[in-house]
Amino acid sequence: MDVTGKTVLVTGSSRGIGLAVAHAFDQAGANVILHGRSPLSADLLKTFDKEPRVLNFDIADQEAVEATLTALYKEEDFAGIDILVNNAGITKDQIVMGMKPADFAQVINTNLTGTFNVTQPVFKKMIRQKSGLIINLSSVVGLMGNAGQANYAASKAGMIGLTKSLAKEGSKRHIRVNAIAPGMVVSDMTDALSEKTQEAILQEIPLGRFAQPEEIAQTALFLAANDYITGQTITVDGGLYI
Ligand SMILES: NC(=O)c1ccc[n+]([C@@H]2O[C@H](COP(=O)([O-])OP(=O)(O)OC[C@H]3O[C@@H](n4cnc5c(N)ncnc54)[C@H](OP(=O)(O)O)[C@@H]3O)[C@@H](O)[C@H]2O)c1
User: Fold this and answer.
1) Which percentage of the chain shows pLDDT scores above 90?
2) Model pTM?
3) 190 CB under 6 A from ligand 1?
């Protein structure tokens, strides 16, 4: 797919990987719709070639998601979303012995159910458009599991199942659905880990470093460019899961 002039919604694009993905699509000539829970700063919007539109909602709040996207699609001059990047996500790490059920539920409700909440209304429109691309930000942890991240790993493994199912449901209407499974990426999410934890993880990464968000964004552009890939999970992890 040539992304020039295509409309791309990137959830959780106020910072980190989502912001890098949004910048990459903007630089490739797409029209970007940014998203976060709170309004984004004017300075951030100025970093884009074409001024992006911004949507604000909590992806875990199904009614808010539905209301915002329904209003967007009703706008007279709105041509539709060509590419959806489901990137918004959270962690609430704790070993299972100490994990509060509410923290398990919050991570599933945000990462997995939240992805469904945004995807469903967009996917319905893509089915009618007979075209579309969805990219889900899973994690290598969804493939390999991780002590202290049972909730997060379950949510990210769920996103892989969702990706494959959507790819099967969308294929006849030319909708491709893929996932990216990053390893460790420099962002607020990994900055929150203690130095000791970051150092221990670094020892496990064969390429000896965390990824830059731009390296994940490149993968999203690659998945957009190649029209013959669907239902796949592309691992970008410096060899962590060899
Ligand atoms: N960093 C890594 O090493 C890594 C590795 C593998 C996978 N991933 C995945 O990649 C994605 C991005 O990670 P990141 O490191 O860039 O995270 P980040 O820096 O913490 O940014 C998270 C983004 O998600 C948004 N968000 C969080 N909860 C939301 C909610 N309930 N509703 C709407 N927006 C919400 C945040 O928006 P606000 O501005 O509203 O907070 C922010 O834009 C996540 O899905 C993460 O699981 C990250």
Assistant:
1) 100
2) 0.98
3) yes
